[in-house]
Amino acid sequence: MKKILVTGAGAMGSGIAYLVARYLTAAEVYLCDPSKEQLERAVENFRKWDIKDSLKENCEPKKIADNVKYLTSVRELPDSSIDLMIEAASENLEIKKKIFIEYDRLASAEALISSNTSSLPLTQLAQLISINKRPNVLGLHFFNPPRVMQLIEIITTPDTSAVALQRARELATQLGKTSVVCKDSPGFITSRLGIVLLNEAIFALQEGLATAEEIDTAIKLGYNHPMGPLKLADFIGLDVVFAVTQTLYENFQDPKYRPSILLRKMVEAGHLGRKTGRGFFTYDKSE
Question: Which end of the chain has fewer CB atoms within 10 angstroms, the N or the C?
């Protein structure tokens, strides 16, 4: 893959761009986001992560920040010969649809077109891609932070070809990740199963069953989880957790997926977890 485009420079998009730039050193990597502030933050993070990872690998920093090319619009691309497109914008179907319309305009017949969505219907996004290109559409669901988490969940639509799936699995291996394959269904494997635990932990806190610390400690030590569900929800972002629960509830119409009132109120108040400094726990935003 000679040219790779990542759209969205938030926590996930910038992490994915860093990852592909670090491991696919022969490729040109473009990171696109309409916010210059987001792109500037990505540059800062790339430099910080580069130092950390180079120390671990006992090598010189790879100057990732200097090697990635930054765009505020895909129209700034020097040409349209992109081999891999990864949409990593916020978990909003309408935003993702707009990006996929741009991807259809840019993509060659061979380009791999993907979304990092954690719950939204990939088949709907694929319908925005020309019919001859749809076999190359799939989901590449990375986990936060992408440079650390070992899993990539690959999601296939009814049109995804065996060739595209094989290319995606090879990409995961090149990035040092383990991949699992899942058919397109709301929440896929990980969000569908994981969100029930997070949401139920919030219900338990809402009901006064125990404190946030006690709920997290019980799950960490009782089930050998590395992080409690409430702290994990803070880490993911409570707005994202809420969006995923809403998606699952709307699609399955099953009350086990309904978001708790406490979660809704936290999002309305702007207490979104680590990224805002306050969620179920408090955080130093400078960290």
Answer: C
